[in-house]
Amino acid sequence: MRAEIITIGDELLIGQVVDTNSAWMAQRLNENGIELFQITSVHDDRAHIIAALEEAFGRADIVLTTGGLGPTKDDITKQVLCEYFGTHLVEDTRVRAHIHDLYKERPEVLNRLTATQWLVPECAEILENRVGSAPLMVFHKGDKILASMPGVPYEMKIAMDEQILPYIENYELKITNYESGHILHRTLQVTGIPESSLAIILEDYENSKPGYLHLAYLPKDGIIRLRLSSYGEAAEAEMNEWFGRLKTLVADYLIAETDEPLEVIAGRRLQERGATVATAESCTGGKLAAMFNKHAGSSAFYWGSVVSYDNSVKEHLLGVPEEMIKTHGVVSEEVVRVMAESVRKLIGTDYAIATSGIAGPSGGTAEKPVGTVWIAWATPEGTTAECFHLGKLREQITDRACMKALIGLIRLLRE
What we know:
By secondary structure, the protein is an alpha/beta fold. About 40% of the residues lie in helices and about 25% in strands.
């Protein structure tokens, strides 16, 4: 089964809004054994949308669209879909009742523009949008389908998980020799080795593996994800065999055996130990705390942070001696050790991480250029610290610092 995604909206094409929907949808499609063939972004323009639909249906069995379903004049997706499928808008009493219930606490929202939301294409199957006013619409074109969803990310995600994916699963597409579950992905995460050096280590492996197994290298912020994929021929047992060989070859650099964020892996290991962690951040400015916090349930192991950006906070809240900063500088092993140990004691956790660095673009010296970052990890057994040089760009430096901090914590929790 092959799918395509069409995202609709001028805001995507001028860079005003970043299309995060497609990446999330691609992941969910692959998890459900559906091959994603192409992603297309189009303007809020009738001809552009129709051309994209025609091309997508020429290649795919399932077309998923997001965006353009609001009540304002620039939202034209519903009208264009009516034209494309040769139908017209009719009132749907169930959608009308849902919208009235949705806005019962905000009656001012119910106006003549809101009323257009319960007008739906007559030929479409209407699925419930539990959290929004725009109806979810499914159209049939021969043995192919199109599902239209809102562009608001949280609405789209709920729609995909609760309505669209179950609909696709239950709908028997008439595709010759189609069998579900033929896309398999397994991922390892490695660190501490350049991508080119890793490719040399895996050269014989890549040359000997079957052609229907594909190995992809996905580097980012000091982590390389190695994704082994099968598209239709390898049985799961064979996939596992080749994945096991891959794991053995990269064992010295292996940090994770799943394609999960490192903060999730660290959190799970903390929970397995019944342990907790806190952070003291200078150059990362709370970014590490935000990485932990964005995952539900993180309060079980992540207890808090001190964002000690100014030296006065390091001195007065974390107890870093003023003389230590004068002697060694704020970006130093001595300072981050005190920061980590102090925040561990202050918040009362088992582990703590501290970061201090020069994120630029100014502030660097010959001895400590931009990109220099010290990180410390305080544990029940003691404190360790390490210096890194993480590039020249501010966001790159802080992102990489967070990854290094998490890698260090994961390694400590593995010992």
